[in-house]
Amino acid sequence: MYACGRKKAITTQIDDLTAQFGSHQDMLHGPIEINTDALQQASVDCSDEISQIVLFLCVACRVVMGVSRSSCDLIIKIISVVLLLVFRRSDGSLSSSHENILKQIPLTSDGAEAKFHLTGKTIEYAVCSCHCTYPLTYAPGSTTARYPECCVHCPMPGEGSSTQLRVQLI
Fold it and tell me: Are 112 and 76 in contact (CB under 8 A)?
């Protein structure tokens, strides 16, 4: 009996929300324009196709395949030498476009990664076995992170349920 009444209440709430938000859909008659001028564009986007492939290869080896930094540095330097030998004319000179391509290729994997703007913000969380997450906190003036000791998630929120898990966090 309780489940039937609960199901009816949820259905009523869904109908109310559908009616409430249904009127907002009428206002959207076309695509939403978003100004992306303030977003940082990766410098690799402005590079020549050949240098983009070399940069991608280096970053894929480093990030995806887990190749060491020194090995990636060796790979990118060897590719640069191969390109130099391929681009070089019989008199030993380079065309300005080939010279430009070689200048776009950094000699380290750190330089290649920097062109993709891969640095991100990392936020650590403590996780309970119930999948509830807790961000770290800092005491005023402290640089030491603190987490709650126990999970205070309530698995059955609502009517008459005040039991909390109180599980030790990982």
Answer: yes
Contact 169, 152 (CB under 8 A): no
85, two tokens: 């030998």
Parallel/antiparallel/unpaired status of strands 133-135 and 125-127: antiparallel
pLDDT per position as a tens digit, 69-112: 999 999 999 999 999 999 999 998 999 999 999 999 999 999 88
Whole-model pTM above 0.85? no
Helices (H), 26-147: 49-59, 69-87, 96-104, 109-115
Instruction: Locate 158 and state its tokens.
Output: 């609502």
Q: Are 130 and 151 in contact (CB under 8 A)?
A: yes
Q: How far is CA 138 from the centre of its chain?
A: 24
CA 23 to mean position of chain CA atoms: 34
CA distances from residue 17 to 5, 12, 62, 139 in whole angstroms, order as listed: 18, 9, 48, 41
Residues 6+ apart with CB under 8 A from 8: none
Tokens of 11: 């259905």
